[in-house]
DNA sequence: CGTTAAGTTGAGCCTCGTCAACTATGGTGG
DNA sequence: CCACCATAGTTGACGAGGCTCAACTTAACG
């Protein structure tokens, strides 16, 4: 695996998949490539949704600041978190091929997004040539990200999933020039559990376990790594 | 969920996700839209791989006949099946953003593929305007497909996964004007197990269970539905 | 016809989900 | 500023679903 969070723009990191390595820390977000497509700027408060499952598809959204979760309601009515979106990420890519959004995007904190419009009046997609390349690579990367998540949830234990998640988030932090060792998670335990395909209680149990092993410290949503190499090690020797 | 197999081209099926319904049977494959991008035609024997994980990315491949599995080797060295590709599907989309293939594609039976080339000499992507729209929708749809698989594997029991898989395959069959009630699976039990995030033994146990409940008949790779409504019912009332 | 891989079946165990009770947190209105 | 309530988070006990391991049968293929 490579990353659990979308990265932007794609870098080049050949070789075997390596869980939650520095792949997220490749290159700086370069969101301005899409600037010609920007429309409105929207400010979101925590809990607010920029689009709702089933509503007509209008555009994708580029996250400038804050954080989002994108989720799908299943037949039982409870939500499954598909991904988290950080600054530089595009949301709604999975809905382009439909006339409506196949999931919802909800702000986890006060956030700023741009509308990214590329549909003509007849709903046909029109990308300026200089953006085409970039856009397709973004989608390809998104595809690879979900595949990573798929591998993580189908072949790894609860502890490994938590570790991979935290390491990926950490990498994303340093990507934004924030501390990779100490950070505050914008999402709830429930969100993490849903994202990783676990029960909330299991998430907690794994966190306490990692705490007892002196690998990290968690108080509420604040995370502090004690032994980051130890964490990485537990991922490799699965 | 909507489908576990890529569909081509995307249709319009608004509303909540509904597992393995007729969504796969939307519209006929219309692969010729990409015809301007076709290069060589390649014939593959079972077990042959059209590209290998880590090798330099050259192009995507359109399946014309036969079937493929695309897989990723994890750090332990065993393969995880990411998707199955049927006639009309594109493979390698997840590798566009990298200089190399992030997984491998292996023929499950004697198959025919087209090389789909859209990279210029400088590796920049160049899509004819009339194809752009179509191509992006394909990628978006692929994204939605994997999200479906993600939801299936993270929130559903072994039995439900098997049922969803078989129903999706059945839908794909009728999509190709083949019988939806009786068909031969091109992939091994191992492939199915890996794809659904299960052990081979579990796959079998569920098949026998469904057999005992008079819902279907399985002999080797041949599947015959006895009570397709019964199967659908067991998916809804999860 | 022999060899190897694929498929099947059973027994036992372990991880993780479920349920229930409890505590902490944060937001709101009096 | 505090009381209140709702939501989020925590902890423990228990059970079940599915994985592991091992033995065996069947199928595929030269």
Overview of the molecule:
- Two copies of one chain form a homodimer.
- With 238 residues, chain A is of the alpha+beta class.
- The first copy, chain A, folds into two domains: 22-142, Jelly Rolls, CATH 2.60.120.10; 151-236, Arc Repressor Mutant, subunit A (Orthogonal Bundle).
- The first copy, chain A, is 32% helix and 22% strand.
- Chain A has five helices and eleven strands, in the order ββββββββααβααββα.
- The first copy, chain A, has a four-stranded antiparallel sheet, with no helix packed on it. A four-stranded antiparallel sheet of chain A has the order 2-7-4-5. Chain A has a three-stranded antiparallel sheet with strand order 9-11-10.
- In chain A, helix 3 (189-196) crosses helix 4.
- Chain A is globular, with a radius of gyration of 18 Å.
- Chains A and B meet through helix 1 of A and helix 1 of B.
- The structure holds a DNA duplex (30 and 30 nucleotides).
């Amino acid at each position: 695996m490579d990353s659990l969070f979308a990265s932007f723009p794609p870098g080049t990191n050949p070789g075997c998949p390596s869980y939650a390595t520095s792949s997220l820390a490749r290159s700086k977000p370069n969101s301005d490539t899409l600037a010609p497509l920007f429309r409105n700027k929207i400010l979101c408060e925590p809990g607010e949704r920029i689009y709702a499952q089933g509503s007509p598809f209008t555009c994708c959204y580029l996250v400038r600041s804050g954080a989002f979760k994108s989720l799908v309601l299943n037949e039982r009515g409870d939500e499954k978190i598909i991904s988290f979106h950080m600054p530089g990420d595009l949301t709604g890519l999975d809905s382009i091929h439909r006339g409506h959004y196949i999931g919802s995007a909800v702000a986890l904190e006060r956030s700023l997004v741009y509308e990214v419009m590329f549909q003509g009046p007849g709903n046909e997609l029109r990308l300026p040539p200089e953006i085409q390349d970039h856009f397709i690579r973004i989608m390809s990367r998104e595809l690879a990200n979900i595949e990573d998540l798929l591998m993580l949830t189908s072949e790894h234990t609860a502890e490994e999933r938590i570790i991979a998640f935290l390491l990926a988030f950490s990498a994303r932090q340093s990507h934004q020039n924030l501390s990779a060792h100490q950070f505050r998670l914008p999402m709830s335990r429930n969100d993490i559990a849903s994202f990783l395909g676990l029960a909330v209680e299991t998430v907690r149990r794994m966190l306490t376990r990692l705490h007892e092993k002196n690998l990290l410290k968690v108080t509420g949503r604040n995370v502090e790594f004690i032994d980051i190499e130890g964490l990485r090690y537990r991922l490799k020797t699965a």
